[in-house]
Amino acid sequence: MSLSLNQKTINRASLAEAVDACARAGIEAIGVWREPLADVGVERGAKLVRDAGLRVSSLCRGGFFTAADRAANRDDNRRAVDEAAALGTDTLVLVVGGLPTGSRDLAGARGRVAEGVAELAMYAGDAGVRLALEPMHPIYCADRGVLSTLDQALELAAAFPVEQVGVAVDTFHVWWDPRVLAAIARAGDRIAAYQVCDWILPLPPDTLLARGLPGDGYIDFRTLGAAVSDAGYRGDVEVEVFHADVWAAPFDDVVAEVVRRYREHVAP
Amino acid sequence: MSLSLNQKTINRASLAEAVDACARAGIEAIGVWREPLADVGVERGAKLVRDAGLRVSSLCRGGFFTAADRAANRDDNRRAVDEAAALGTDTLVLVVGGLPTGSRDLAGARGRVAEGVAELAMYAGDAGVRLALEPMHPIYCADRGVLSTLDQALELAAAFPVEQVGVAVDTFHVWWDPRVLAAIARAGDRIAAYQVCDWILPLPPDTLLARGLPGDGYIDFRTLGAAVSDAGYRGDVEVEVFHADVWAAPFDDVVAEVVRRYREHVAP
């Protein structure tokens, strides 16, 4: 396993700037987000990454299956698959979506997610792209992701061939789960992505920005990382931080700190 | 099942004021907190409640087993048991505690909790008091409660006689859990307390105060309540809200609103 910079960690950077920052820091892989990719266009973005000799560890993100406009959602998810294929990554991370507006039907929302994955899985597999279902911390269950545990994501993934649907393990989302180590072991080759950031307190007012650099919080990365490695995962480890101070800092400073934190807290 | 006012919902009220507010609203049971009980003294507090003809649905709260001073923690928890017995309630709700300061050893903290429960269980049972292990929303895992799911609480409780250790089901803490309905069914007569409040968004800056009145958020109380009833629970339903606006409002207004919300969203 080796370090990948998820470009969200330097959120203000264009794709070109993020690619350059990786290259300067000797980081060999990058996790790309769709919005900055769209800013330069898929073809040009793919060339940028390729010319720099970087692997794309994942494309973030598709999903949002509980959206009101299902047809638009399906189309957008297919575009996300196409973009992943164009970038040469085999992993599309999916944030599945929260409760539909005004709804309290959590079981229904979870059913919608299963339907959405079923509609997309074969399309993805045919494009050589695997959907990585990302269980999200229950803090986001209502508004962002009704997949709340790794077990739950694995149960959903199990209905599909392993080359079509896997899971994304993100330390922030799963660290608290009393079953997480067993779930990681069970996940085996379903693990399509491994992302790290820390759980920090106090939570910032915007809880979306509560994801700190490894070492700033409460998560034991060695134990989780060893479990992921023991499960057979040999892909990249994306450092993906959402934090106002990190986003405000100069890109090269952040990337250097990411490298330090990765070595100190995460690397096997 | 019938309505109980957890006195935290009118946080500024003294025990006497909370008891009076219940009596005026025709509420027959109250969930008592230790701090306002200490303000009047246990004996006088017990008399206040008894004279008003109220049941005490639970005493909140003991626990915090991961505290640095284990001897002081043990003594305090035994006092909490004694206070519950003096109040005539058979239920002491336990918030088990978060990670010890500076620690990332979640498994170790969970082990400490199991030891703490083991030390207290027989003392409680001998006093006619049952410990109600409260699984807490994972948002509080680091700093407040390392019991994160109902399944986990039930696994811990299973090591003890049912009259010594049960669980507290609080909608806020468990609503997101994909296994919660099965866990409630499995809990059966381990359910020692049922508390309701809603998950609201956006989360307030102090996430401790993110617990809204039923109907203000995303939780489907009918489904959870039916599961609790089907599991055989026949105790009181505590409305326990932590919210700055609710805490700032006049007590009688809040209690009247609690009664309305209970009827509209919670009552079977």
Structural class of chain A: alpha/beta
Topology-level CATH name of chain A: TIM Barrel
CATH architecture of chain A: Alpha-Beta Barrel
Q: Whole-number average pLDDT of chain A?
A: 97
Radius of gyration of chain A: 17 Å
Shape label of chain A: globular
| CATH homologous superfamily assignment of chain A | Divalent-metal-dependent TIM barrel enzymes
CATH class of chain A: Alpha Beta
Tally of individual domains of chain A: 1
Strand order of the largest sheet of chain A: 1-2-3-4-5-6-7-10
Tell me the fraction of residues in β-strands of chain A, as a range: 15-25%
Count of helical stretches of chain A = 11
Percent range of helical residues of chain A: 40-55%
Alpha carbon gap, first and last residue of chain A: 8 Å
Please identify the oligomeric state. homodimer
The largest pleated sheet of chain A is described as: 8 strands, parallel, barrel
Number of strands of chain A: 10
Q: List low-pLDDT spans of chain A.
A: none
**Largest interface, Cβ cutoff 8 Å:** A-B, 28 and 28 residues
